[in-house]
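pls design
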């Protein structure tokens, strides 16, 4: 499938954590308390109603205390440990299930629920509690400047240079549980395909907006399909 010294890039989306009990964004009704994700996860939404946005992220941050990585997360950590060539895991997810499963070569391109950022002093702080407009920054003491360390619509995702460099030399691109409608991540398959020798595999329970870019589709839940895929990559089975 890929030579032993080849480079692997994996992109994961909300479907990766679905079987851990974290809801996807564009599921059955795709709404949160009647709001579209685009309205909550945007700088405009935060300026309009900061407490609503804090509540959205407070609930999701608190929910992390009650979920665990699934077999899919564990399989990707095993792939990273067992693979001798290049490896990069890029996740759009803001949960911490990949790192809890043991992944280290990991980029959270849309940020992290368990971090907050101070717009006053720029500090990025680990944060496991609730946040509100009245919370004081531990770094500068300012009040009202803290926001979730999350990439909202219209903001620039993190570490794009590193991601694009890895995609440019990828021999295998695996895309797991993403609907392929949010850019720039939705463009990664096309980017990887620019290298004629790169093989592209999609793992999803459904067809997606970007399915046509892939050589192989594995239709099924990530927690079931990834352990089998990783086994075949590492052991040629
Ligand atoms: C399973 C499964 C199981 C279920 N196993 N699979 C017009 C055209 C094109 C682009 C734009 C446009 N207008 C604006 C834009 C840009 C905009 C964008 O893309 N908007 C679209 C909605 C049109 N993008 C941005 O603004 C981004 N920034 C940007 O572009 O900056 C400029 C730039 C330019 C060029 C280069 C670089 C930068 C920022 C995007 C920020 C996204 N933020 C969010 C919320 C914050 C994080 C959070 O709160 O959690 O990130 S939105 C939300 O969507 C979240 C997710 O990470 C992201 C992607 O969702 P995902 O993961 O795909 O989830 P779902 O629910 O959509 O899909 C789940 C999938 O899993 C489905 O396919 C299921 O079938 C599958 N599944 N169970 C396997 N068990
Ligand atoms: Zn501060």
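designed seq:
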């Amino acid at each position: 499938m890929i030579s032993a010294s080849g480079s692997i890039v994996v992109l994961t989306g909300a479907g990766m954590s679905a079987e851990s009990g974290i809801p996807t964004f564009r599921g059955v009704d795709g709404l949160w308390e009647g709001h579209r994700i685009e309205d909550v996860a945007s700088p405009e939404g935060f300026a309009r109603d900061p407490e609503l946005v804090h509540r959205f992220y407070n609930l999701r941050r608190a929910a992390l205390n009650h979920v665990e990585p699934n077999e899919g997360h564990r399989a990707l950590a095993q792939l990273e440990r067992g693979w001798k060539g290049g490896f990069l895991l890029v996740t759009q997810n803001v949960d911490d299930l990949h790192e809890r499963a043991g992944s280290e070569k990991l980029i959270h391109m849309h940020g992290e629920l368990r971090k907050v950022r101070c717009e006053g002093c720029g500090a990025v702080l680990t944060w496991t509690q609730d946040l509100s407009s009245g919370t004081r920054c531990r770094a500068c003491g300012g009040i009202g400047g803290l926001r979730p360390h999350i990439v909202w619509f219209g903001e620039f995702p993190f570490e794009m240079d590193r991601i694009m460099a890895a995609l440019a030399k990828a021999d295998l691109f695996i895309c797991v549980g993403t609907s392929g409608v949010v850019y720039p991540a939705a463009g990664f398959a096309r980017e990887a395909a620019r290298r004629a020798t790169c093989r592209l595999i999609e793992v999803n329970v459904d067809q997606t907006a970007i399915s046509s870019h892939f050589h192989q589709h594995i239709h099924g839940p990530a927690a079931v399909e990834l352990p089998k895929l990783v086994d075949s990559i590492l052991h040629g089975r």
